[in-house]
Amino acid sequence: MTAKALVAPIHYGMRELRMVYQKYATIALIFAVSLHFLIIGVYYLIGYLSQEDEPVMMVRITKYTDLGPPPSITNSDVAPQVAVSVPVARPTIGIPVPVPDAEVNPEQTIATQQELSAAPSPVLSTTGSGEQMQVQQDIKIDEEEPPDFVPVEKQPVAVKAPQPDYPEIARRAGVEGTVWVKILVDKEGKAKKAVIMKSDAEIFNEPSQKAALQWVFTPAMMNNGPVAVWAMVPFHFKLNK
What we know:
- This protein is an alpha+beta fold.
- Among the domains are: about 30 residues; about 80 residues, TolA/TonB C-terminal domain.
- Helices cover about 25% and strands about 20% of the residues.
- The protein has a three-stranded antiparallel beta sheet, with helices on one face. Strands 1-2 form a two-stranded antiparallel sheet.
- The longest helix has about 35 residues.
- The radius of gyration is 55 Å and the shape is elongated.
- The chain starts with 13 loop residues before the first helix and ends with a strand.
- The relative contact order is 0.10.
C-alpha cells in the first residue's frame, strides 16, 4: 500500500501581499519618524551644551541721600597743587669755566659800560602822535625771484620803454635781428633783472639788457596787492632802408 502525503495548499495572492505591505510600511514609517526625532534632538542638544553663559552686568544703585549736599558755586577754595618731581637736566652752556692765567689772551678786552653807552644807537624818528619809532638803517631785503608763471589779475603795463642803441658795427655790416628779453618787474614796477631768452645775433644782447633795465611798468596786481612777475619784451633791430 503506497502512502500518500497530504500537503496543504499555500495561499499567496493579492490579499496576502496587501497585508504584508501594510505591516512593513507601518514599521518603516515608525522607524523614519524615530530617526528624524533622534537627529533633531541631537542637534538641539549639541546647541544647548555649546551655549555660553551670558555675561552678568553688575549695577550699583546709589541713593540720592548718600551723595550729600552739592558743592557750592561760591566756594573760593582752590584745590591744592600736587608737586610732581621732574628730573631737571643740568645746563650745558653758560657755565663759567676757570681758565689758568697763562692761557688768558691779554689782547682780548670787554667793552665797559661807558663804551657801550657811547656806541651809536639806531635812528629814532618821531611820529605825529609824539611816539618814537625805532628805525634800523642799512638793512636790505632781497626779494626772492618769482617763478616763471605767476597768476595775476592785472598784467604789468610799460609806462617807460626806452629802445636800445643800434650797435655801429652791426649797422655798418647790415645785421638785423630780434632779441627776446625776460624782465623781472618788482612790486614797484621797476625792472630789477634782465635775462636774454632768445637772440638772433649776440651783438644785440648787451644793448638790449641795458635798455630793459631802464623800463618802468605799472605793477602787476593780485588779490588787491602788487606782486613781482616776469615780463617778456622783444627788441627789434631793423635798418631803415
